[in-house]
Amino acid sequence: MIILKRFYFRPIFYHYRTNTTTTTTKTKLNTFNIEYDPIKQSIIYPQELNLNNKNYSTDSWTNVNENILSRIGLNLHQQKNHPLYHLTNRLRKYFYQFYDQKKLSPKFSIIDNLSPIVTTEQNFDSICIPINHVSRTKSMNYYINQNTLLRAHTSAHQVDLIRSGLNAFLCIGDVYRRDDIDPTHYPVFHQCEGVQLFTKEELFIGNKNVLGDKDNLEIFGPNEQRDATKQEGHTLEAVKLVEASLKKTITDLFKTLLPNTSILNSRWVDTTFPFTHPSWEYEIEIDGKWYELLGCGIMEHRVLENSGLNKDHIGWAFGLGLERIAMIMYGIPDIRLFWTNDSGFLSQFVFDDSTHSIQYKPISIYPQCINDLSMWMGKTKIDPSDFYDLVRAIGGDLIEQVILIDEFYNPKNQRYSQTYRIIYRSMDRTLTKNEINMIHKDIEYHCKQQFGVEIR
Ligand code: PHE
């Protein structure tokens, strides 16, 4: 079975600053009343979390933390003059050029203010993600409780938006994933979902010139089988036209967004998503490096059925990560910069015309500081996501990267060993050895407390 790469973009980060070193009292970590109990060695959640003025009961699935919760509502893409705001405006501008002659209005509606708190039904079931799929696990998502999580992708809103009557839209917002730590991944980032549906008339009449006699053509046929090129039920001519529309929309979009970068090449890579078939990733090559920009495909017909449509529509969908594109567009070297309040960064993006093209100038480069942490654990090894969370919780934005560099099992004493490399680096100053040692010790201490490991 091909397991989708969870979805494709990976993010990273974390941090609830603990007042550590005390050993017996519970440490109050934050404004959400999430506490750490060093005796039970666990995080204790209140019975209810109040988020966006609504109470959510917590349970054994709850794994959010203060740092993550504090991002809700920040909506960087709506903050005037933020690079993600400019990119959002550029997406808006590009998609508003498509006009619907029948409705006398822009074809695409743009929705950028939906709450990131969604149900598992929205995030997974509604778009056909199987019940045992790896992308549902606790180690990949931020759950508020068993049925509620911070959306892992904007695809969570596809069905609701189609049900509300839209047949072409963008949905832009913050998404949350637990993942590796490095300069291009952060546990909160932003996505733009795009969807366009077509009726038989729109698809075939719009392409009359290519197809000649459009009257015989149908989206659905009685004997169509699922294969690599299409879903069961879909005719190949319908799929090919939708594929062409999707690929043209996207290639034209990137020609508009990145006219000055030296895009040498671009390519469509076959992939799989539970909610599209066939599916592709779009990659571009810049200076000899390939960058994955988005995932997309022909929407699974079952998703349209879940949205209340009958067999009279077919559609495409894509999901792109805003940070990655903004990093390429403006030459921003580190994803943490999107969250900085440093005026040295933000002032470079103060301009009224969002199509204005600039290259970010690093204020200065501060040195990295590398510390390894090796530990013995029992027969079960630590889930790296749990370790990343802990490190971010303590080190905050001073953590640039965390890499699992070694892991082995010692059959003699039946213990696992793991070694993580933690790379510290500040965005705005040189860190002292002393300061880093303190944080590193703190991480060791909490690691012992939380996972019961022995530091080697
Ligand atoms: N939701 C997918 C992700 O986050 C992207 C995607 C959207 C793929 C729509 C196909 C269609 O990785």
TrEMBL record:
Main location: mitochondrion
Position of the signal peptide: none
Primary enzyme class: ligase
Catalytic activity: tRNA(Phe) + L-phenylalanine + ATP = L-phenylalanyl-tRNA(Phe) + AMP + diphosphate + H(+)
A Pfam family per the record: FDX-ACB
Residues covered by the Aminoacyl-transfer RNA synthetases class-II family profile domain: 85-362
Start and end residues of each FDX-ACB domain: 364-456
Record-listed E.C. numbers: 6.1.1.20
Molecular function GO terms recorded: ATP binding; phenylalanine-tRNA ligase activity; tRNA binding
Compartments it resides in: Mitochondrion matrix
NCBIfam families: pheS_mito
Family designation: Belongs to the class-II aminoacyl-tRNA synthetase family.
Subunit structure: Monomer.
Protein name, as recorded: Phenylalanine--tRNA ligase, mitochondrial
